[in-house]
Amino acid sequence: MFALIDGNNFYCSCERIFQPRLQKAPLVVLSNNDGCAIARSEEAKALGIKMGQPWFQIKHLEQSAGLVSLSPNFPLYGDMSLRMMRLASELGDKQEIYSIDECFIGLQGISNVTYRAREIRAKILQWTGIPTCIGIGHTKTLAKLANHIAKDADRKPGSYPTRLAQVCNLVELNERQRQFLFEMTDVGEVWGIGGQISQQLKQAKINTVKDFMQCNPATIRKRFSVTLERTWRELHGQGCIALEEIPSPKKEIAHTRTFGQPVHNLASLIEAVTEFTSRAAEKLRKQQSKTSTILVFIHTSKYRSGPQYARSITVPLVRPVSDTKNLLNAALRGLKKIYKPGFDLTKAGIILMDLVNAQTRQAELDFGETVLDSDERLMHAIDEINDRFGRGTIIYGSAGVGSEKKVWTMNQQRRTPSYTTTLGEIPTALT
């Protein structure tokens, strides 16, 4: 048995914790460079704002409907997520953090599940200010579906029975009650059934979850895929997707960014690629991996007038590494080979590929084990200092120094303070 705990409109909820005036206001959090809506409050959804809708299409709602827009504050969201996940883990002995605002909890051997779930939900709300919904089912897919029912029952009165709002436990319902809910639920709401598959199912007169569950699994496998058959079996209570307490290491790590304004010179590109490589290297070490190949790319925007330019280069490394120094040497060497002056470059990025476990050793004739160990110890020390005193406490000189805004940084004119992660931005309590 599993529970799925999900933060409601998570980014918006995090912002509202520190700005109570936004509690009932229509609120959207925009993407990097304030391009489009990536999170919406219920009030914003009621205005018809769609996920991913460009800001210029909804900007007029600031005046006509009191819409509030904010730039993303990912340090805040990450810290609030960590707090929420720690509390959520108290529901069971096993936890899989699925995304920044979702986690699965293994409930084997747990009694009074619904009561405990409501207690945990109340504790998360009281201790962090984040509202959540919890779905419970015999499989992860059923837990996801139960979470959807809990959310809709809470925010859309009449969509589902009120008693299922906030916490929905499909396990404690009888078969007739479950089938009633499945008949009310669109097939596209099932975890693993995306928009394209949903349309194909509906063309075959499979409109609801109940319709899908009444299909022949062999037919689903033949007509669609073994993955969709697995979804069918999960809905029938046959566990096919295990809980992953330790996430699988990523096969690639990328750090890319669209610039706040076009970049015209190599010096600014070097600063940007240094920043991207440093951040990617941190992630690489965090998952205890090394890379033997780095890809660097730059390009102009196809949506802007003027000459177009797009180039990438793959730089192989002598041996798998994870230290920022060696990765920077390779990345900047590649950047200088593909850079060409005279273009309005709008995006750059790096991708670390061919990742291997950090325990892999391949000493070269010109690099002794002592040098390798020294590099790793240096990176460990830098990571610890940056973790303790804040990212950017120690940086490489090629990232640029000084407090002035870099031309390649993102436009985040509406960003709120990092209330919980930066000492100088902690809220002041008035007495």
Automatic annotation (TrEMBL):
Keywords: DNA damage, DNA repair, SOS mutagenesis, SOS response. One of its GO terms (molecular function) is DNA-directed DNA polymerase activity. GO terms for biological process: DNA repair; error-prone translesion synthesis; SOS response. This is Y-family DNA polymerase. Belongs to the DNA polymerase type-Y family. GO terms for cellular component: cytosol. Residues 2-194 form the UmuC domain. InterPro entries: DNA/RNA_pol_sf, DNA_pol_Y-fam_lit_finger_sf, DNA_pol_Y-fam_little_finger, DNA_polymerase-Y, DUF4113, Rev_trsase/Diguanyl_cyclase, UmuC. SUPFAM superfamilies: DNA/RNA polymerases, Lesion bypass DNA polymerase (Y-family), little finger domain. It comes from candidate division WWE3 bacterium.
